[in-house]
Amino acid sequence: MGMFDSVNFKIKCSECGNVIDDFQSKDGDCLLNTLEFWEVDNFYSSCPTCNKRIEFTLKKAVSERIRKTIYELRKSLTIDDYEKEEEKFEKFVKD
Question: So where are the chain's domains?
Answer without folding.
Answer: 5-81
